[in-house]
Amino acid sequence: MKITIIGTGYVGLVTGACLAELGNDVFCLDVDQKKIDLLNNGGIPIHEPGLEEVVARNRAAGRIRFSTDVAASVAHGVLQFIAVGTPPDEDGSADLQYVLAAARNIGRHMDGFKVIVDKSTVPVGTADRVAAAIREELSARGGNGEFSVVSNPEFLKEGAAVEDFMRPDRIVIGHDDSPAGQRARDMMKLLYAPFNRNHERTYWMDVRSAEFTKYAANAMLATRISFMNELANLADQVGADIEAVRQGIGSDPRIGYSFLYAGAGYGGSCFPKDVQALERTARQYDRELLILQAVEAVNDRQKRVLGDKVVSRFGGDLSGKHFAVWGLAFKPNTDDMREAPSRVLLQELIERGATVSVYDPVAMAEARRVLELDLGADKMSRIRFAEAPMDTLDGAQALVIVTEWKAFRSPDFEAIKARLVNPVIIDGRNLYEPGLMTQQGIEYHGIGRSILTRK
Ligand code: UDX
């Protein structure tokens, strides 16, 4: 099928590349000429496992191309995916200016039937606004082309996005029941047929329910994480082990194991933004989402938990003290620093006078950029970017782990002990067994695991 993807950000690029991989003819549009040039020269603007190979293969086969030509992009696809950013406004609601600008472009140039697919995460009711924007442009030029807007939210995890796209556990599609809506449904069915061969994975629903589903999923997952973080902090005080508790409750199929890991708080581009946006939507209807307010508050506090542990071990005045930090990205397999807990930790350590050596397997360049904005050039000089994890340790009072990269799972603990000033590990991701750490002579502080470290 002929497909246009508007926006070559994270979601757009993965969607475009994977749809090309399935044999479709994909045209990717972006307003950013530099990004388009990079893509046309074989570059990839984000770090995402497997993406570079998929793009390269399909570019070589002529199934995907990148351009800034709006008229050509509208002419190309019967399916027009809108995958542009919806950054939070000052008040936390999703800013729809890029989505609506994309819609107006379609209305301005379309000629013949189009299915507009909302892929960006957008508040309930956005499809109606997209349709209104297209209609307005159409009528301004006296056109009366037929179209239908469907909602097809993405559930891609950063670091596993290609895999998630190619092996979806569900495909959610919202459409209306008009004749154009039925036609759109048929096209979407054809598009996603390769994923439904063995069993049907598509959930068909009305447009508003599809838009809502995306927020409900992310809000539920964020709730599970904040719930476990809150319990972990209590477990630390009452002397229980949150890991044992996690397994004990996860074995109940009504609860399940996933997304129950206590840690240094959730970050990234989706959970913080979507939780806020859903709260904002509720406020527009004079409702308060009390659970989500708590989820957010608990997460803000949780991002400070590593700093709190450093302070309770080494005191509030950290001047003259040096610390090692492993992991900067908000989670492994990405260089994304958005809302990363490492930013909160580093800010706190630096403000209390410490110096820090940091290491991350892929996020170093992005971290440099973001931390400079957070801290300013002056304070940046207190952060040293190390070439390897072990190179952060010399002269450090403790090692603090923020992101659970695989490479950190089995380090040489003897070498760690030899290089640190004190054999202290503060682990924001519960990577190691506290009992083994004690045997190794390491003072280990996990999240919610103090019963074992006390022995
Ligand atoms: C999320 C959703 O999973 C995805 O479906 C949606 O499309 C976009 O948002 P992503 O933000 O890429 O994906 O990361 P995810 O793996 O979900 O992790 C989000 C955050 O939660 C990370 O900071 C992670 O460290 C944290 N997390 C996750 C926990 O603290 N504990 C857990 O048990 C799971």
Structure report:
- 46% of the residues lie in helices and 13% in strands.
- The chain has two domains: 2-205, NAD(P)-binding Rossmann-like Domain (Rossmann fold); 222-454, Rossmann fold, CATH 3.40.50.
- The strands form three sheets. The chain has a six-stranded parallel beta sheet, with helices on both faces. Strands 11-10-9-12-13-14 form a six-stranded parallel beta sheet. It has a two-stranded parallel sheet with strand order 7-8.
- It is an alpha/beta fold and 455 residues long.
- Helix 5 (97-109) runs parallel beside helix 6 and helix 11 packs antiparallel against helix 12.
- Strand 9 (322-326), helix 14 and strand 10 (355-359) form a beta-alpha-beta unit.
- The protein has helices at residues 10-21, 33-40, 51-60, 70-76, 97-109, 126-140, 161-166, 179-192, 207-238, 242-250, 271-284, 290-302, 305-314, 341-351, 364-380, 413-419, 434-439, 450-454, and strands at residues 2-6, 25-29, 64-67, 79-82, 114-118, 147-151, 171-174, 202-205, 322-326, 355-359, 383-385, 399-401, 424-427, 443-445.
- It binds uridine-5'-diphosphate-xylopyranose.
- Uridine-5'-diphosphate-xylopyranose is lined by residues 154-158, 218, 221, 225, 259-261, 263, 266-268, 270-271, 330-331.
- This is UDP-glucose 6-dehydrogenase.
- Pfam families: UDPG_MGDP_dh, UDPG_MGDP_dh_C, UDPG_MGDP_dh_N.
- Keywords: NAD, Oxidoreductase.
